[in-house]
């Protein structure tokens, strides 16, 4: 019989095993920065720029997307870039393949996720460059179509294992929330603030609508010019839009981060990328304290006051796409150059986090996250610890399926 303590001890904290270092360790590619793009236009934002040429080397890495099979690197291989393909599955498989590739030594590499996103007008606007501390997988929930929901539900989304919206999930998968190095984020934001962000007349015209109704003073940021903002990113394969889903996932963010996260941008990959990097960090292949997630805003997650939700999503010209792509480069170049430029004195040693980093299970440090139910309960609710309580939750989960 294995005690709970012994079981937990064996479950994670995989010790760093370097007993058989591959003989060619020194010939591996060890970039200082890898830029992670999610689709073509985000990738192309970095091509043909005056500062560096990431297309000097194209390295085929098994497991990457058939659409984007290469890792691109500068001639000196100090800066590299890849495109994951869109949505959670593509991001997870691509980053796992990179992180476990024997072609690379990524132990000192900074991972810079640089993509576009929807944006919450309460915190930022189109063209803004946002930097996340948390990534929240907001749609990892039960869902019934809102037309069939009980009259007293505020949304059709219900946290897994729970009985109503707003209840803390009783069933944990482990990827619900990731927390990143806040001190590194502060540095990245400091670099990005040197940027002159792009804007356009058409984007200004559309965002002005968010200021039109004074009862919506809450959208002050949505109606203001683009800026660099610290706020968090939601991940969902479903490209949702509208007041009610945005509010529902704002509530989910608050719930899952115990009130410390700020629901701000919405994209389809970051939690998957972070789960892949976390698994690699467990085996000391990457350093989880060296990740920056930047999302520049291409569109609003909800209509302006008085606008129809479907019109906003499907027909309106929000005019944010071009400036968001341009601002990946304008803000991001300062981050890349900042890290490479201060490599010797600062970044080669790493930036010590002042906050918990990792997932909801406490996988990396074994410590307790500052969100979630705590390591032991989270493991229990994930089904990893088959206690009486989790067995009953699991059996309920599966009997509901039959
Ligand atoms: C690398 O690939 C890009 C497009 O994917 C291409 O434009 C570039 O010329 C390639 N570089 C080399 C050195 O082949
Ligand atoms: C909704 O109403 C039902 C009874 O009609 C009640 O049992 C349940 O607790 C209510 N749920 C919420 C979220 O208020
Ligand atoms: C302003 O917003 C309030 C609350 O949503 C709404 O009732 C009102 O009709 C709006 N007014 C205009 C002019 O859009
Ligand atoms: C979000 O939470 C607030 C506060 O609990 C609640 O009033 C609102 O109805 C919720 N919104 C949705 C869409 O669930
Ligand atoms: C987060 O909130 C949940 C639900 O309210 C609670 O059970 C848990 O203890 C909280 N976690 C932390 C670290 O405060
Ligand atoms: C996804 O990752 C972001 C950080 O980029 C974090 O804020 C969020 O909580 C994560 N969500 C899930 C469900 O893992």
UniProtKB/TrEMBL annotation:
Keyword hit for Ribonucleoprotein: no
Leader sequence segment: 1-19
Q: Domain of life here?
A: Eukaryota
Q: Which UniProt keywords apply?
A: Signal
Coiled-coil positions: none
GO cellular component terms given for this protein: endoplasmic reticulum
Q: Name one GO biological process term.
A: transmembrane transport
Which InterPro entries has this protein been placed in? Pur_nuclsid_perm
Give the protein name, as stated in the record. Answer: Purine nucleoside permease
Instruction: List the source organism.
Output: Talaromyces proteolyticus
